[in-house]
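Raw record, unedited: G protein subunit beta 1 like
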Amino acid sequence: MTLPPPDPKFELRGTGAEINCLKFSCGAPSPCPPLLFSGTSSGLVHLWDLRTRRTITALDGHDGKSVYWIQTIHDKDSILSQGRDLQICTWSLAEGRNEVIDTLPLENVGFCKSSLLMTDPPLLAMPGKEGSQVQVLDLLSKKLVSSMNPEEGSRWGMAMSMHLWQPVSGSSPMLLVGYEDGSVALWNVLQHRMVSRLASHTDPIMSLDFDCKQARGVSGSADNSLNVWKLDEQQNLKAYKTQMIVNPGISDIALRPDRKILATGGWDYRVRIFSWKTMKPLAVLQYHKATVHAVCFSDHLKPEDRLLAAGSKDQRITLWSIYTES
């Protein structure tokens, strides 16, 4: 007999606004507490202590405009936040500070989340000025490393989601971009060249994630399909598998760091868990009362401590402990 889905381990409340994005920082040794960052529609970034389940501080740097991407840099003492005020802020949190130490202007008013690759120097992929354009910058110098544009006359629409990664073989980083027309494109960053493209969905791609070791990725859209695709030896994008879901609309996708399971956040208020190897549905988590905008797995070092966080339009964050076996 199938076991019923679990209840949340606990929930976090008090932001007073919709939760748009989440990011864990749980790898610091004791006595540093495990942390969770959340970005809200009111422009604040809340820093949560997961031991006390309370906010440590709220960062206010986006002029009241929605925050929809957060990324840690090296450790918990420095983060990036991207907002609808067309700014990417760099925050210093060391020694109790909570100040913006740098800003990077954006020229695109869409909702495409940036992507950070921790190379030396760190590289930041971000939407460009034109709708379909994407750019990669040296985060330290802010110099443009690459600008990638579809061929003239292409009707891909806006860049909607992206993932910057470094292949094991090859000197150039690679960038996967999901577009408004439902296609996924792979770009060679240093050559400013599109390598391959796949028509994955019929609706805009809302989120994607990628498994570098298996050269396999997954995308979600406004439709009711979760599409898996892979790269062949010539780096051509190929359709691999489609998993249909009951209700349309996937806001966010996250692969767990061990690449065993993935989670999706849905427009139908549900979080769905799948096996990454087989795409078999494992659980449907029903708790939220509105669209689930964000899902994120923790980076705890011990498997038994791992958590899944879900953030919703209902202003709540739920924390789940599921399938923690190594």
